[in-house]
Amino acid sequence: MGELYRVAIHYDNDCGFVEYDTAEKQLRVLLDHEEKRRETEAYLMQRHTIRKAGQRLLDFSEVDILPVDNLEDLKLALTRLWQKTGVYVDWSRPVA
Q1: Cα–Cα dist 39/62, whole Å
Q2: What letter would DSSP give residue 2?
Q3: pTM across the whole model
Q4: How many angstroms separate the CA atoms of 16 and 85, rounded?
Q5: Tell me: the pLDDT tens digits for 40-89?
Q6: Which of 16, 22, 57, 92 could form a disulfide bond with 2, CB atoms 3.0-4.6 angstroms apart?
Q7: What SS3 string covers 26-90?
């Protein structure tokens, strides 16, 4: 098992987290709301084309990512999670 990356998520009053094993490239979503848990997992397991910010204010490029390929791609996909699923990422809330 590699390093575990965890980030808190919530939908309405249901709190949970996304956990990613960087070595095994395994993803786990813990959320009591079953439909939103499945929706979040499906979104994070699919390939996406995302406009990624570059070095300058208006510098964007389209990148094709599979979120489970690496931590950087997972974090990029998480920035779009709320827009796609309605599940909010609590970047600053610690996960114990």
Answers
A1: 24
A2: -
A3: 0.90
A4: 15
A5: 999 999 999 999 888 888 889 999 999 999 999 999 999 999 999 999 99
A6: 22
A7: EEEEECCCHHHHHHHHHHHHCCEEEEEECCCCCCEEEEEECHHHCHHHHHHHHCCHHHHHCCEEE
